[in-house]
Amino acid sequence: MAKAKRCVYFFGAGKADGRADMKELLGGKGANLAEMTSLGIPVPAGFTITTEVCTHFYKHSRRYPKELKIQVDRAVGGIEKVMGARFGNADNPLLVSCRSGARASMPGMMETVLNIGLTTGTIPGMIKLTGNPRFVWDAYRRLITMYTDVVMEKAAGLEPAEGKGIRQQLEHQMQQMKQRAGATGDTDLTAEHLKELTATYKKKVQEVLGKPFPDDAQEQLWGAIGAVFQSWNGKRAISYRRIEGIPDEWGTAVNVQAMVFGNMGDNSATGVAFTRNPATGENKFFGEWLANAQGEDVVAGIRTPNPLNEETRSDHSAGLQSLQHAMPAVYKQLVAIRNKLERHYRDMQDIEFTIQDGRLWMLQTRTGKRNGPAALRMAVEMMRERFIPKETGVTRVTPAQLDELLHPILDPKAEQTAGALAKGLPAGPGGAAGRIVFTAADAVAWAERGENVILCREETNPEDVEGMRAAKAILTARGGMTSHAALVARGWGKCCIVGAGALKIQAGAKTLSADATVLREGDWISLNGTKGLVYAGQLPTVDPDPENPRLVEFLKVCDSLRRLGVRANADTPEDARVARTFGAEGIGLVRTEHMFYGEGAEVPLFKLRKMILSGSEKERRAALAELFPHVKADLKGTLKAMAPYPVTIRLLDPPLHEFVPRDEAVQRELAESLGIDVAEIRKRGEQLHETNPMMGHRGVRLGITYPEVTEMQVRAILEGAAELHKEGVKARPEIMIPVTCAVAEIRDQADIIARVKAEVLKKFGLKKLDFLVGTMIEIPRAALTAGEMAQAAEFFSFGTNDLTQMGFGFSRDDIGAFMPDYLKKAILPADPFQTIDQTGIGELIRIGIERGRATRAKLKIGICGEHGGDPVSIHFCHRVGMDYVSCSPFRVPIARLAAAQIAVQDAQAKKGPARPKKKKKK
Ligand code: PEP
Ligand code: MG
What we know:
This protein has about 900 residues and is of the alpha/beta class. Helix content is about 45%, strand content about 15%. The protein is built from 36 helices and 34 strands. The chain has an 8-stranded mixed sheet with strand order 15-25-24-17-18-19-20-16. The chain has an 8-stranded parallel beta barrel with strand order 27-28-29-30-31-32-33-34, surrounded by 8 helices. α5 (about 135-155) runs antiparallel to α6 (about 165-180), α13 (about 370-385) crosses α20 (about 550-560) and α23 (about 615-640) packs parallel to α28 (about 705-725). The structure holds phosphoenolpyruvate (PEP) and magnesium ion. Magnesium ion binds near residues 778, 799 and 802.
């Protein structure tokens, strides 16, 4: 007979069936509970039902595999043995928790039920055992609330009206009870009050849900297991998966574990901690705890938690006792566990613990989410301490996290005089200014209209996730650094402030107030998420510091590992300087026509227009002669700023019609300058009109019809380089011919270049001038005939903007009308103008490289389309063997990181999968 499929993995008393590397099967929580148990760390005994059971459940009309029941019964027996109590037993009852646990952490997105096993039959035994009736009735109250909300309402698919959910209705009963009893806090309610309350609760449950609350331990357990599986397909979980790109098929595991209680009295507590500070990366044990509290109280942000230790105490926790002082022996044990876990996992861990009557239990460990600055600091410090090798270090910061470090902050000068409205906890770094919205739905709607919004909530809960995503930043009045808002924002690298207690945020009235200041929906507000400061009004933001020493150190490590070169697309000497500060090793694209846009370009633009509107070669040559000094000075400046690195200068590729003047005064001035009348200027302008300018008289075609245009540009480049040469500056121009589709075009232009070169050498008395002549590959025909193109080109640069446009036949300027539908209907997996379409356009690139190198083995190959700054596309460029990528100056650090990460990934793939180390026998 075939062996029954294993659905359940047990852990307890120092032994576990699972391991940390079994996350796919056991989920992150289950795998790590097993690992901690094997490491000898105190973990309440329990078991994990696998993610495969979840998948089975959804495939088979929400039914379990037949072997599950018996395996669960056996595992419950295992817990009973370790904990010395019996599930459902009247005299010595065992209580369990039931929690979700997917492969990837989905904080707060799925359900949990605690205190399972409390029934009218087990309550007396529990009271006898603990000697604490208040505690038992309180636990029962919590069980009824959680169970009815999670199992009887959400999992049953009920969707009550806003404020009418069973949880709110029960909480309302509790408020009434508190009023009657004259109690201010929950803790003021006595055992008698709570007992009476549970009776009221049960009546209410029957009344609202039309069913009694189950009074049988087994029924409670199976109800909770089913509800956790159902919560995988709850609304919040689905939205979170969409945003995070987590596949629906993964499923969640279910962890059933013996309950331990942090709310058994003042010698009990519960807490959440990070082995290092997740907001700054500082190597200090950082956390929050609450005495006499249960499970979610810390995370939910209902009470302001106490600091874990003295060294991480903040202004906010002044006056609150640290765990280090309150329970020094337990704290010491916790520190030892912290050290053990960091050494074992070699990464910052996010842990949850409970202290029951002075005894420490660990309930969770997982890799801690962190923001960009913290990720960078931890990676750099761990590499410096040789705690992790550099190949691991560079994978510890994601491109998105690095991007955060390159994000704007509030202008410090403006902040000095602004006067903060309130101070909260700095949960997510950077600065943001935006308009206030009070609900997640409004955040989404306003953001869709193109508004920058800041989502302001009393506290956030997992239902707000879409709004949090849409908002520029998040602000809450309550909650700590481990509250839901803080965790989610940090994961996404968003500017976020939590627990700004001085603020009164009223979503109903749509007001946010602090003392006399009242702000309303749509008003501007600014946040300094690094310091936790909130300002009324719109403060200016400033760009980040590219010379941040830790960033420089980290990127140097990246540079030591990457194979791909990284250049910048830069059009002016100023851009070139910025690009160098970000670490660019050259310019991969100077769009020369950009010289005629923007500030200070009026004079050269006028001359360019004259050239474009010239009616004969003679007129054109005269206009070009006027233009020449401007072009030369500009390009010389760029070559100098980037020397000794190469600068790829593209010959003019102007959309001619864009340069035709519409303004009458300019038309008149041009007419006068050319000695013709305005009507003639207009006529010439109209002649330049094209039906499809993207496929019109652009790129090399301009140089073919007007060789004198190419001649002027080449002379400007080479004379600039020759002058620099004489000044002792090693300028390295690379002349790039755009929009080519046939080798003859390159040959035609190369002849002009050779002629001008000879003239420049003669003029400057030089024997040689180092430069290259190459082409862009941005038309499919160019890619397909790359073997021929390489006969005349010394380098290729893939212009993937046009290559995508012409490969797909999608006008790059008009995709807005249809691309959103293509993405929504999953016709394309991603916008091909953002990330390279590896299947189609990628194939053209592969062919281009292969055929080009077959002709010229040392052909230098890069990319200069926008994809050069997209991490996934950069990985592709590495794999197809390009020499470099070129992207906007601010993306250069991200490209350096992405190039290092793919090099490491590549090297590891070549070595083969790492085998788990054998445990040493002690
Ligand atoms: C390209 O087409 O990819 C390119 C870099 O050129 P441009 O965007 O200027 O057309
Ligand atoms: Mg192009």
